[in-house]
Every structure is written in structure tokens, then in C-alpha cells.
Amino acid sequence: MPSDHHPQAMFELRECARHLVQHPLVCKEHDPDLFRLLRRHETELDRWFTQRLGYRLHVDADTARLFKTGAVPAHRRLRARTGRAFVPLEYTLLALVLGATAAGPAVISLRDLVQQVRSAAGEAEIAVDDSAATRRALVAVIQWMIEQGLAAEIHAGVDAYAGDAAADAVLRFRPDRIVLLSLPALVGAESAEELLARAERRNATRQWMRCRLVEEPVLYRSDLSEAEWSELRRRLGEEARVFEEMFGMTLEARAEGVAAIDAAGTFSGQRFPATGTVGHAALLLIEALRGRAETTIEWVELIDRVEELVTVHRRGWSKDLVAAPERLARQVVELLVELRLALRVELPDADVGVADQPGQARVGFRLLPAAGRFLATLPEEDAESDEQVSLW
């Protein structure tokens, strides 16, 4: 390995690998020192990702792109500048903007861009109006592209367009970077189902399981077939060495599955336990529901539990969320589901549930085994047992 000859090389490789997984598009201007390391270790990084995860690394003069296929994270979403998750309208507009700018020109006015987006929407038979909601969504999309290094404001800013349809600005786009965003699985895919099937690559079992552990906090036994679970358990020592070498992570195996643990707490964009009202409430809710492990909880009961927590902790929590326990409950559920510590469960029509959007199935809430890591006490492992201890 390179570290045999250069003691610092392994640390640099690991730093680059961690960054690429978190930020698959890396621009030189954002972090020149890190980009220099990527260029230095390009060959070794490409070998790591290609052989071990089935990913492909592209590096040019000022851009690095890690093409990730193998496992599709269920809860990985793009986020606006404020930190909130993109809504469907913003995803639609992002696809239209990317399609309108991939072939250039590099410099374009906001007004002309809007016309190109509407033209592309018409060709795709997508209705795009000029409402304030649509303008705000388009501004959020362009701001996201600016943050990613895909665009820049040359004259004036795009913010004014959210409130004024007549506002204009001049933007510079990077078509060379924009064309790198699409995964190879997108080419020729005629439906969303076909695209996801191509990106999943579950037939490459070892790489697929590694990708799942890299991209999501935990891989549950219920996610796998018995053959896949047996293979993972049989190769756990080898997998642990791969994760330690590439990312400095340790694998924790339990009866319910395997989790990739980052002791540094910097590998995920969403830390837990977390500070703030939502993070504190989520941790307390896990403790409050310890006796209801893996049982479905109806929405009304969940609201009651959150209201009980609010009663005790209202002085230290956000006034806005304290005044709206249902909104706090929704944010807590969103956090726990994103971390794979909980699951939304469809309920029969007779049950009381909550729907994310009108017309969707009604759902309840259930804690998953990995939530047991955050209880006040954990069960002691039986050293004489051949079976891994359960978190619950």
C-alpha cells in the first residue's frame, strides 16, 4: 500500500475518500488543498472505489466527480440553502435547468434562462407557470447550483426574482461540470423504475452491501435475503478492514443487522445525537418509547408523546416548535427516518395516521433496532453466545 512508503499517504487517501462520498462533485475553487490531494492520489482512489464499491472517479483540471451506482439511498435528498429538503417542484425545475444549460451558452441572462426552461418544459409536456411559488423554487435551484460550483452570478442576484417576475440577472454556467452530473444509468432509461433498477445493481452482492453501508447508516437483516446475510456475516472481518482503511469507520454487528460507525462524527451530513430542539426531542422520544420497540405507533399517540416532552422541556426548546407539537413531531419523525432509526408504516384505513401529502397512504411510526444504540443503557453482550446480542 502507498502508506508503506509515505506515512502520510494513508491519511490523505482516507480524507479524500470520505470527502468524495459526502460530496461526489468536488470543485477546485471550493477547497484547493483537498483538490490537490485528489489529483495526487487519483489512481489509488479510483482503484479503491472501482474495485471495492463499483464507483467510478473522474478527475480533470479543476473538477472531480465520483459516479456512484450500486445502491440507491432511500432518504438522501438535495437541500436548499436554508437546509430544508427539496420539494418535487424543485427537482423538476432542476432537471429542466440542467437540460437547458448542458449545451451552453456559458453566459446567459436569467430572463433568457426562464424562457429556455419553459420551452424545455413544454417539450416534456410539463406545466410550468409564473406563480410566486414557481419563481421561489427556481431561485432555490439556481442557488443550489451556485453552491455546487455549477453556476455563478456575474451581474445582480437571482434572489430578487422570487418576489419580482420582472427582475433579471446575468449568470455564468459551467456546462462541462453540468454534463458530469448525470449517472450512466440515466442514459437510455425510459422510466423511473428502469432507472432505479439500473442504479441499484443488487446482482453485484458484495459491492451492493458495501454501498448500502457507505450510503446509509445501517444495513438491517430484513433488508437482505438469508444468503446475503450469511455472506455478510461470513465476510465481516474483511469488510471491517475495508471500511477502516477507506473511511476510518468500524462495523458494529448485531442480531438485527450491521452498522457503520464513525467515531469522529463527521462522515454524515446529519449528526445524531444532535443539538437543538428537534435533535433533543428525537433522543428523548427514543427513550420514551423503549417499551414499544418495533411496534407501530399511531400518529395521535405520537403527538401525545411529543406533547408530554414539550410540557417538560418547553423552557429550553424553540418557542415556534413548542407552540406546534404536531410540526415538531413531523420533524422528529423525518430525522429518525432519515437516519434509519425509525420507519413510516402504512396503516389500514380504520387506523389513525398521518400523510406527508394529500392523497398519500396514511402511515404510522415504528422505531427500528438501531435506535437502541441511543438508549440510556445497552444490553450486555453474552461472551459465551455464538449469536450477536440484540439492541433491544
Features:
alpha+beta; 15 helices; 3-stranded antiparallel beta sheet; 392 residues; Arc Repressor Mutant, subunit A
What are the segments in which pLDDT stays under 50 over at least 5 consecutive residues? 355-361, 382-386
| Biggest pleated-sheet summary | 3 strands, antiparallel
What structural class is derived from the secondary structure elements? alpha+beta
Share of residues in strands: 5-15%
Q: What share of the residues lie within helices? A: 40-55%
CATH class annotation of the largest domain: Mainly Alpha
Write a brief caption for the model.
This protein has 392 residues and is α+β, with helices and mostly antiparallel strands. It has 15 helices and 11 strands. It folds into 4 domains: 66 residues; 91 residues, Arc Repressor Mutant, subunit A; 61 residues; 99 residues, Orthogonal Bundle (Arc Repressor Mutant, subunit A).
Q: How are the SSEs placed, and which strands pair?
A:
Layout: H1 9-22, E1 25-27, H2 32-40, H3 42-53, E2 56-59, E3 63-67, H4 88-101, E4 107-109, H5 110-123, H6 132-148, E5 151-155, E6 170-173, H7 175-178, H8 192-200, H9 205-215, E7 218-220, H10 226-234, H11 236-247, E8 250-254, E9 257-261, H12 276-288, H13 299-313, H14 319-322, H15 325-338, E10 342-346, E11 363-367
Antiparallel strand pairs: 1-3, 2-3, 4-6, 5-6, 7-9, 8-9, 10-11
Helix pairs in contact: 4-5, 4-6, 12-13, 12-15, 13-15
